[in-house]
# Entry
Amino acid sequence: MKYKVVIIGGSAGSFQVVTKIISKLPKDYSIPVVLALHRLKHVRHGFVEALSIKANLPVVEPLDKDSMKPGKIYLAPANYHLYLELTGTFALSTEEPVNHSRPGIDLTFATAGYAYKNKAVGIILSGANKDGALGLKKIKDYGGYTIVQDPREAQMPTMPNAAIEKTKSVDKILTSDDIIKFLISLPNA
Amino acid sequence: MNPLLNEDVEISIAGVRQLHEISLKKYKVDLSIYALTSFKRRLVRFIETNDLINFDVLLKRIDKDEKLFANLLTSLSVEVTEFFRDPALWRYFRDDIIPALSRNHDSIKIWIPGCSTGEEVASTAIVLKEAGVLDRSEIIATDVTDDIINSVKTKIYPPAKYEISEANYKRYMPESDGDFGKYVFNDKNGFKIPESLFKNVNCLKFDYSDELKIRGINVIICRNNFIYYTAQFQEKLLELFSSKLAFNGYLIIGNKESITWCKDMAKYTAVNENEKVYRKTSPY
# Structure
């Protein structure tokens, strides 16, 4: 199966895992990776830079209506929701926070599921709340591939556990090392 | 249940097109200007809050129920913001834009289209007051329905907005540990902005279909409105703004919005890339 997008959601305890994952993706990794991570809403700068240090691919915060391009890592900007559209572009919104968060992980996942159907891979990492659970289920319902970080490994198991419970039959529960192996094994977009 | 995540409400693309048609035919309002995903999300929320059960019920009722349609328009326009969102922008407004304008103009005309719940209007008025130019400024606040405009006029905000707005104001004014509280007073429904801040604020209904008579605007503050529109309408909106802005007037958009691809951007020079502030450097 050729996938067109990988969406990674995480909250408390996910930063190191995300950094590790993106540091292992090779320079020629062509599937776009979208990061929906909880972050301080008033701190707009610094996160991209922190993620960029170890990444072999450019990390960017998409602007409204930017096209999603292969070979890039996209980070949901502070204080906006990030949607994936049918047109292959991003959309931003300042609608009400979801699960007290903006960006809301559920929304990025649900729109990715709708827009990319069985071409989407959704991954939920460590976090201390339930955001992302419903979104991952949506990806599953639309035919996408679903992965959850092993709750035993996650610093905060609440989010992985909620995602497993809500989705009912996630495709894989993996440690971060195995998530990396899986992502690298995917055929190029 | 979160709108868009509600599993009971499904809206197909064909359904969206039907709604576009009804709206244009019956009410002469073009809803196809709205970007799809957030449009659908707002429709789902509207269906939920009005107990319409599903999208088909909405379609059937909207055709006959004028009030329901007006409510739909209102709910399509509400965004969720804070006072002094992006404090760095407001510092730039205070330290660069206002001094430049007050040097060159006797009066300052500011237009805030899509003013929604009015936080940007009040923030603007506070900065103008602090700069000592509120008395020679005019703020025109517009949005698409009377209901939105009337709620802006009440100047009442829910308690939940206070904490973040206060924190933003402190970040806007870190040197003096800014006290947002001095600009508001308690109201039984939350907090209220005093009338004196709004004395030069003109709230108007304007829905982009009729003609807005104002010209010679010095600043247009339109943050996080472009994101809700299609690329085609963004282009039109920018053309409208260009026709209303005075030479050397400023256009301020949301920090993650992008309109640089629009043809009319040839008339502008970016003066603050981070905060997305542009100056109209063409006289036309």
About this structure: Residues 8 and 95 of chain A are 21 Å apart (CA to CA). The first strand of chain A starts at residue 5 and ends at 10.
